[in-house]
Write a structure and sequence with these properties.
The chain is of the alpha/beta class. The protein is built from 16 helices and 19 strands. The longest helix has about 35 residues.
Length: about 575
C-alpha cells in the first residue's frame, strides 16, 4: 500500500470557564493550516478540523486519529488552545467545557496524547503545540496562558519500537507565552498566531525548503519557523524534541526552484569570458555550453549560471549565443497535454508517458500533481501518468514540473463515466465481490459494517450479563438441591448457550469493526468527513464493548471446565 497522510487540527478559542481568556487566533489558525496542509500541491493531507469541542469529544477524536494506522502513514496533530498545568506540574490542553479546578475530568492530559502517539502504528507523527505556557510577555500582545511549565517534559520517554518516530514542536519554551498577533485589539479582525502564521507561510511559499530539494522536511520547517518567530517577537522561542530517525517530509515546495550547488568554471574559461576579444568570448560560450551538458549536475549548474551572466551583460552577439545555449537547460516535456478520453469508473486505466528532453540538468526536476486523482511516477523516459477512476465526472488538472532553470506544466484531462451495464469494475482498489455493481452500497460499506459491529458488541454485552445471571441461578440451585451437580444445574439454567452466544457476537463485532476500519483506510477519498467520524466512533465503541466480553467469556469458559470436574 502507498503512503497515507492524515492531519487533525484542534482549535479552541471559546471557553465556558470565566478564568480562561477567549482567544482570537485559533479559528483563523485552523482555516489557514487546513488549507495549506490539504492542498494537493503542498501538504496533500487528509485534514480533519475539530473546533471548540468538549474534552470528551477531543479525547475521542485524538484516539480515533491515532488508531488503526499503517506503517507507511504520516500523521500531523496541531493544537491551538490554552495550555494549563495542575499543582503537580502536569500539562493539560483546555477544551470548551474545561473547568480549571477539575482538570482531570474536563481537560485533555498531555500524557493521554503522548500515549496515543506512542501506541500508534503510523511510521511518522508530528505534533505542533501552538499553546501558552507562561512567562514574560510584551505589552500589547495577546497571550495564551499564565504560569511557568516545562512543555516538552510531557513528551519524553523511550523511543517508539518498530522504527516508528515522532517529533514535537512548540510555539514557545517553558519560560514564555505563545503570542497571538501583537496588534490585535478588541473587535479587530482575527489573524493567525505568530507561530502558526510562520508554519503556514513556510509551507505555502515554499521558503521552508531551505536546501532547495523540492520538498519541506520537518527539520527545515522548524529552522524556518524559529527564525521567523524570533524576528517578529524576540521574547518567544519555539522548541523541538524528536524521537525519529532522519526527518519527516511534510510538504512539497510549490514555488521555490530546485537548488544545486554550482561548481565554478576553470580559471582559463573565466578569463576567456572576460576577454576583450569578442571572438574569444564567443568561443568561450561554446566551451561553457559543453560543460552545461555534463551529467555532473554541479558542473552543469555552474556553467548555466555563467551563461546567465553573459546573457545579461555581454554584447548583443555574445549575449544572443548565450541565450540560445541556455535554452538547452529549459524543461521540455512531451507531450504537454494528455487526454485519457472517456474511461469507465473503477477500471484500470493504462498509464501514459511524458518524455523529458534536453540535457541532464534540464531533465532534473520535481513533479507535483494539482489533483489527488492524478497519479505521477518517475520512469526511465520521464514520467508515467495515470488517473484514479473511483469518482465519476470530468477531470482536469495539471502536473507542475519544477526545474533548475524554469518551470513547465503538463495539462491532463479525463472523463470518468458509469461502468457498462452488467459488468463489474476491475480497478486496482480490490473491490469486494457482490458489492462492486452497486456504488451506493460501496460508498456506505464502512459505516454499515461499523453499525453492525456496534450492534453485535451491544448484543455480546447483554448475553454476557445473561450468562452471569444464569451462573448465579445455577449456584443457587446447588444450595437448594445439593444432590445435583453444577454442570447439570448450569445446563438447566442455560449458562452454556449464553456464553457461546456472547463469544460469537463479541468475535463477530471485532471482525466487522476491523473490516470497517480497513475499508475506511483503503477508500478514504470516497467518504465524507461525517461518515469517517461516525465510522471511527462506532468501531471504537464496538471494540471497547466487545473486547472485554471476549476476554471474560473465554476466562469463564475455562473456569467452567475446571469447576465442572469437581462439582
Amino acid at each position: 500500500m502507498g503512503e497515507s497522510r492524515h492531519a487533525l487540527i484542534i482549535a479552541n478559542d471559546t471557553y465556558e470557564d470565566q478564568g480562561l481568556k477567549q482567544l482570537r487566533a485559533p479559528g483563523h489558525d485552523a482555516e489557514a493550516l487546513c488549507e495549506v496542509l490539504g492542498d494537493p500541491q503542498i501538504g496533500d493531507f487528509d485534514v480533519e478540523v475539530v473546533r471548540n469541542a468538549s474534552a470528551q469529544d477531543m479525547r475521542t477524536s485524538i484516539e480515533a486519529f491515532f488508531s488503526d494506522r499503517r506503517r507507511d502513514d504520516k500523521l500531523v496533530l496541531h493544537f491551538s488552545c490554552h495550555g494549563i498545568k495542575n499543582e503537580s506540574g502536569d500539562l493539560y490542553f483546555a477544551a470548551r467545557d474545561t473547568q480549571t479546578r477539575l482538570l482531570n475530568a474536563t481537560a485533555v492530559p498531555a500524557q493521554f496524547v503522548y500515549g496515543c502517539m506512542s501506541g500508534t502504528r503510523a511510521g511518522c507523527t508530528a505534533l505542533f503545540l501552538d499553546c501558552c505556557y507562561g512567562g514574560a510577555f510584551s505589552r500589547g500582545a495577546s497571550v495564551r496562558a499564565s504560569r511557568d511549565m516545562h512543555v516538552l517534559d510531557a513528551f519524553t520517554g523511550e523511543k517508539p519500537s518498530g522504527g516508528r518516530g515522532w517529533a514535537v514542536i512548540t510555539a514557545s519554551n517553558s519560560m514564555e507565552y505563545a503570542f497571538e498577533d501583537a496588534k490585535l485589539t478588541e473587535g479587530s479582525t482575527a489573524k493567525p498566531s505568530v507561530f502558526t502564521h510562520a508554519v503556514v507561510e513556510g509551507l505555502e511559499t515554499g521558503d521552508a525548503d531551505l536546501k532547495g530539494r523540492g520538498e519541506v522536511l520537518l527539520d527545515d520547517l522548524y529552522e524556518y519557523v524559529f527564525d521567523r518567530v524570533k524576528e517578529r517577537n524576540p521574547n518567544q522561542t519555539p522548541s523541538k524534541t524528536a524521537q525519529m530517525q532522519g526527518s519527516m517530509q511534510l510538504a512539497h515546495s510549490r514555488h521555490r526552484r530546485i537548488r544545486i550547488e554550482a561548481e565554478p568554471l576553470p580559471r582559463r574559461v573565466q578569463e576567456a569570458l572576460r576577454s576583450r576579444n569578442e571572438f574569444t568570448r564567443l568561443g568561450a560560450v561554446d566551451e561553457v555550453r559543453s560543460r552545461m551538458e555534463s551529467p555532473n549536475l554541479s558542473m552543469a549548474e555552474g556553467a548555466r549560471q555563467a551563461l546567465e551572466a553573459v546573457a545579461r551583460d555581454d554584447t548583443q552577439q555574445v549575449a544572443d549565443k548565450a541565450r540560445r545555449a541556455l535554452s538547452d537547460a529549459c524543461l521540455k516535456p512531451s507531450p504537454a497535454r494528455l487526454d485519457f478520453g472517456r474511461v469507465h469508473r473503477g477500471t484500470a486505466v493504462p498509464r501514459q508517458s511524458v518524455s523529458l528532453h534536453g540535457t541532464p540538468l534540464a531533465r532534473h526536476c520535481v513533479a507535483h500533481a494539482t489533483g489527488k486523482w492524478l497519479q505521477v511516477e518517475e520512469s526511465d523516459e520521464g514520467l508515467a501518468v495515470g488517473v484514479d477512476t473511483s469518482a465519476e465526472g470530468r477531470l482536469t488538472g495539471d502536473i507542475a514540473l519544477k526545474g533548475v532553470a524554469d518551470d513547465a506544466v503538463v495539462h491532463v484531462e479525463a472523463e470518468v463515466v458509469p461502468p457498462p451495464p452488467d459488468t463489474k469494475p476491475t480497478g486496482s482498489e480490490g473491490k469486494e465481490p457482490g458489492l462492486t455493481h452497486r456504488p451506493e452500497s460501496r460508498l456506505l460499506l464502512a459505516p454499515a459494517l461499523a453499525a453492525a459491529a456496534l450492534a453485535l458488541a451491544v448484543t455480546s454485552v447483554i448475553t454476557w450479563v445473561v450468562a452471569i445471571v444464569a451462573v448465579m441461578y445455577a449456584e443457587e440451585g446447588l444450595r437448594v438441591g445439593p444432590e445435583e451437580t453444577f454442570a447439570a444445574s448450569a445446563r438447566h439454567h442455560g449458562v452454556i448457550p449464553a456464553l457461546i452466544t456472547a463469544l460469537i457476537t463479541a468475535t463477530a463485532a471485532l471482525v466487522l469493526g476491523a473490516f470497517a476500519r480497513r475499508d475506511l483506510s483503503a477508500r478514504r477519498k470516497r467518504y465524507t468527513p461525517g461518515a469517517k467520524s461516525a465510522t471511527r466512533s462506532m468501531t471504537l465503541a464496538a471494540k471497547r464493548c466487545a473486547m472485554p466480553v471476549f476476554v471474560l467469556t473465554v476466562l469463564m469458559g475455562i473456569a467452567y471446565t475446571i469447576v465442572t470436574r469437581f462439582l
